[in-house]
């Protein structure tokens, strides 16, 4: 079964996610922004989701993790929890 290693930042609004994406593009550290802004418990670990398998995450996040380009920050991606910025490190 495929698996991937990813991290994310979860926020309440699309505007907040877009602003954080700009900050990332300007060189701010993903893990620092995740610790400060993410409303997900993974924020305490810099947004680290660890290794995930298809179906473990909500569908919209699964689609990013298993289909989008590696090492890029994708999003904002909407889910029932809010808006995510997602970065995938590897996929097997």
Automatic annotation (TrEMBL):
**Can the keyword Membrane be found in this entry's annotation?**
no
Q: Name one GO molecular function term.
A: isomerase activity
Locate the coiled-coil region(s) and give their ranges: none
List keywords of the entry alphabetically.
Answer: Cytoplasm, Isomerase, Rotamase
- Would the keyword Isomerase turn up in this protein's UniProt record? yes
EC assignment: the record states: 5.2.1.8
Q: Which reaction does it catalyse?
A: [protein]-peptidylproline (omega=180) = [protein]-peptidylproline (omega=0)
Write down the PANTHER family for this protein, in alphabetical order: PEPTIDYL-PROLYL CIS-TRANS ISOMERASE, PEPTIDYL-PROLYL CIS-TRANS ISOMERASE C
Q: What is this protein's record name?
A: Peptidyl-prolyl cis-trans isomerase C
The record's annotation in InterPro entries points to: PPIase_dom_sf, PPIase_PpiC, PPIase_PpiC_CS, PpiC/parvulin_rotamase
Per the UniProt record, the source organism is Stutzerimonas azotifigens
The top EC class is isomerase
């Amino acid at each position: 079964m495929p698996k991937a290693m990813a991290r994310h930042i979860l926020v309440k609004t699309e505007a907040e996610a877009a602003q954080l994406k700009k900050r990332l593009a300007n060189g701010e550290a993903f893990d620092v922004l995740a610790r400060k802004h993410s409303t997900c418990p993974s924020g305490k670990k810099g947004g680290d989701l660890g290794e995930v398998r298809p179906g473990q995450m909500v569908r919209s996040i699964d689609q990013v993790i298993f289909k989008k380009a590696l090492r890029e920050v994708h999003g904002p991606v909407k889910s029932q929890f809010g808006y995510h910025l997602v970065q995938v490190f590897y996929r097997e």
